[in-house]
User: What shape does this take?
Amino acid sequence: MLKRIFKYLVSFFYSKKTIQTMQDLKLNQTNGSDLYSQGYLERLKNRTSELLKEQSVSKITKEDLDIVKSKASEEIAVAYLDQARKDGDHDYKTWLSDVLKKKYDNPRIDEEYLENYAKYKRYQVYLNSSFSDQDQPTSLNYVQAIFNQTCGNLTEPKNSQNPFFRLYRDGVNKINTPSPMTSNAQSDFYVHSSKIDGHASYFIFEVDKQTNNLKTISYCDGNPVAKDRLISDKQINGVSTFHVRNDLKFNQEYVNKFIKTNSQDQTQEQFYKEFRTNSLNFLQASVNQADKHNSIATQQSKRGNCGIKSINLLQRFLIDKTSDISSQDQKNFYKDFKKQLTLSSLDQVVAITNKAFESDYPPFNQIDSDPLKSNALESLKKYNQKAHDKGDAQAIEILQKLSSPVQQLIGISNSSQFQQRVSNDRQNTTTLEK
Assistant: This one.
């Protein structure tokens, strides 16, 4: 175990981007640490440089890290976070079993707890990405886990008639595979990640069913990317389609080389520059890059939620290409599907939180030592505020299912008796600390 932790730790620090991330995090700490000293970093790099390759690491949200920093040692926390990034492990099961049980000294963190927290995190990440205003980076592996879980909750017969339900349930797992994500009478559509560093976006390869010739290559991204994709200050076209003018047989080798040549391990800025200047390399395909077609109007991505945003864009694009339903019906189907996922996920978060808090509220020191409780309370405060800001009566109704202690803790309701208990608890906690 110690060898694995050390491996992840040195790998984490060796990345220049990660070192900068840790320096950024230092600004949020009240107490300094030798962990951040330049001498420590230099010694660590010199000692391990011959064993390592430079890693590309994305920055996780501060909220997730705060819980780790409060109890676990910084070294082990960093090691886990590096592992989570590379493995797409947002379930936090490895972290909880290897760190929380030892560092939080919480006997309630057992196997059942780990399962509940892993389940909770999927719903939380989806709600952060689609409902609240929180930054929520995530990976394709985790997006697939989210939709496997959330779509499994939607059992009403009408869902089987919703094309978005079928694509999210079955299609997302076909991304980055030799199988088409979906098809129409004339074409198969294969979807692959762009592999841009720290960013989720996708290429869609449309292939003629009869000839196996590549017909179009489309790029899905929730960011503006280029001026010709802008619709207004807030709206963009999220998909750009390039038409292939020559006969070119489609195969996986072409896909791999195309992505490696144009986007793999590139920064967003590097890729966007090539895109804007019509300098992408389509290899053997004859493409007039200036003659691309932009489609799928959407709000600009502003919150680091590209993991969900880009998936939504490609799903809308594929529905448009493979169904004959009207544009208005598509909008209604999509709106209904997204609403169902949001309300279902919120309902599950409420149920898991109620179970975690049981019948009464615990002392604050117990909340601080329990990542599920502290995480849930912080998120539910924001979901409640968002639901009221939107005037979302259905979401507000679900939040009213929270147990009375939880409602009081997040400020939905506040009784004088509860206020007195909070005051007493804080006094007791202060006395113990002294």
